[in-house]
Predict the structure.
Amino acid sequence: MLTEPQENLWEYDAVQPGQDGAATVVTLSAEHIAAYAHVAQNPDPRFRVSGANADGINTEYGNTLIAMPTMVLTYAPLLRDEIAERQGFVALEQSKTARRQTPFAKCEVCWFHPVRAGDTLTGTRRVLEKYERRGSRFVTFRVEASNQRGEHVARYDYTCIFSYAKGQREAPQDPGKALPLVTDNAAVVAPSTQGRWRSFDSIAVGDPLAPLAVSESQEIMLRKNGLRLAGKHRASNIHTDEAFARQNIFAGMVNSGPATLSYVDQMLEQSFPLRAFYDGGRLLMRAITPFRAGDTVTFIGEVTGKRLEAEKRIIDCRVRGINQRGELVCLCDATMMLPA
């Protein structure tokens, strides 16, 4: 009788800070930028029409298409299973004998330079730290991206749950039924956000940010999973495989943390220019409740701080994502760097 060979699993105890994966190299095209905006359900023409938005106003960066800031998680992906493989281990998601997910817990992104169509972007990835909190075990990875000029364009710290003290969550008894519009028209036009961009002097602590409501669907989850610019494609995970997802922490399919992060990005873009991200901005998102197919999440926020530091105009914001059941889906803190 044949038995499965014993797997060298990348369990929490085998994970060590400093373990790394191979570098990735992606040359970003205008089509990539538009495709990412499409799966992020962002109709903003700044990511679809090079040089101008729908009413002919030039973009901030001249006649060049700029990527949505959170696209860093696509052109420089985490690829934790490939980090495991490089160390001689099998990632838990790829195990044949003890397969389970290590889902998203939080992510903090920092930006330093704009990313343009035509840039060649090198991504590096490594284990940053591991820790236990209230009986759960977490691993944080650091991914950094640089362009062809050697400029450090962005960095993110991505935390996964390797074991969850509370066991499996219950799926909601009243699943959402929202069916968001998914269009293949890359020229779809949204109202210009230019008039809503805020100047430093006009902002006060307590000011509300422009809200955004987003519905999720299984079709969108599949499209998001299918958009891969680097690394191996993994067709089965808790975003695409209902049978596997039911066995894991969230008791059913949910969207990815990076997908929700892209919605927060889009929400902030309604109030701030892209320079507010790319000139040293920061976004931290903590996942609280799963965002499931059929759910509609409304992102609301307010200004929580305003300060000048070494001639930098800095705005701090708090953003909450709340679903149709009134549950807190995510809690975010953003730092926006406004131009002079």
